[in-house]
Structure prediction request, 232 residues.
Amino acid sequence: MCFMKINIKILIMCLLVSSSTYADVYVVIFATHNGKTGHAGIAIDNYQILNYEKEMDNQVVNRYDTTKVFTLTYFDLWPKSDSKSTLLQTLPAEYNLLPGSSSEPTITVESLINKGLPHRNGYLADGILKIKTSPTQDFFLKEYIKQLIDEGIPFNTRTHNCTDFCLQCINYLTDWDITAKELILTKRSNTPNKLYRTLVKKSGVEIEKDAGRLVKGSFMRERVIEGFFRRT
Prediction:
């Protein structure tokens, strides 16, 4: 996908940043467990690009560096309405880019673990996986995600759910071309639990919060069967 709108100034700064500078991308998993549908989101480190002057060979030259500010930009996808009657329908999508403004609470790894999603109070992350990146990778990934949001592809539990959205972002970032499909009734779909189990096997992925046994179960057992008996 081609980017139509790119902040060239920021891009040049990113390219000039020392290769020792690092950032992180986090895959945030809410387990499908005990009747809960589960969810997946993606968060990207924020940082400041600093410009300073340095004297070299009797000349003053501009140098750029980055400083992590230990906050995150969080992205995810939900259906605007969600009920059993619309389970297999294509629905209007709710794409989130959070915080949406400077007045909203900041998001950190700790807040995802201890407070949960700002737009779903009390929905605490069960597992968080970390992928090491660079500021340049982060820049392009954020631009890519913003374009996905602008496209506004409708939500579909089978073909374009929260896990599908995260996989698009992860595969763009890493060139892995991975899937996280499991059999649900007669078709295979990407699910949060399978995404977690697939990613932890990849080289370069670190566990920030271990979901443990919460992501061991299949969607059929944990959501469809458990959900039926729990009436959720």
Summary: The radius of gyration is 19 Å. Residues 8-230 form one domain.
